[in-house]
């Protein structure tokens, strides 16, 4: 028996799941849209006309040929270039920052060797400031070093340049050894810094096979002349 003032309601039954026959069919909205369609956007960006490029003949000079090695790696591609492109690619790029750093380092090396020579042969210790200016600023040595580095350093891997560095290393090292053993101290103070700078630079630029060969030649020549390191 229900209490007074309280209305008892029956729970609603869950409606059965609607089938496809119960769904009302209707036509879609065919009202023209105010926005651009995907086809219109593609036509504006010329995306639909790119298929015509399949019929464009391929230039054989632009084809890159490569092969797959047995281990799965790719071999170096053989690129066919026109004569004009080959002429452009033969121009050696000049790394100006690298040249500047090389010239600066060799100039400081020249100053260091000058300081060591003055400490060895000078009657009094040199003044650091005037010696630095005389060996770096008031001399043509940095300019000559810059010209040599500018011409030779970007082409240091070329066999002809390697041969030139080998000759420079051998001649500069032999001349330095001869000057320090045979000539008076004034000549040593004048020649040793320049020869030492050129010799060390040539050794640095050489590949290790060339450097080892030039050092062996220089060591054999010094042994034959009877020169001693110390």
Helix content: 40-55%
Give the DSSP E fraction (strand runs of 2 or more residues): under 5%
* Count of beta strands: 2
**Helix-strand string:** HEEHHHHHHH
Radius of gyration, in angstroms, nearest whole number: 41 Å
Task: Describe what you observe in this structure.
With 230 residues, this protein is mainly alpha-helical. The protein has helices spanning 38-44, 83-89, 96-121, 128-136, 141-152, 159-182, 185-205, 208-225, and strands at residues 64-65, 78-79. It has a two-stranded antiparallel ribbon with strand order 1-2. Helix 3 (96-121) packs across helix 4 (128-136), helix 3 (96-121) runs antiparallel to helix 7 and helix 6 packs antiparallel against helix 7 (185-205). The protein is elongated and about 115 Å long.
Give the structure's gist in a few sentences.
By secondary structure, the protein is mainly α.
SSE inventory with pairings:
Blueprint: H1 38-44, E1 64-65, E2 78-79, H2 83-89, H3 96-121, H4 128-136, H5 141-152, H6 159-182, H7 185-205, H8 208-225
Antiparallel strand pairs: 1-2
Helix pairs in contact: 3-4, 3-5, 3-7, 6-7, 6-8
Features:
elongated, mainly alpha, 8 helices, two-stranded antiparallel sheet
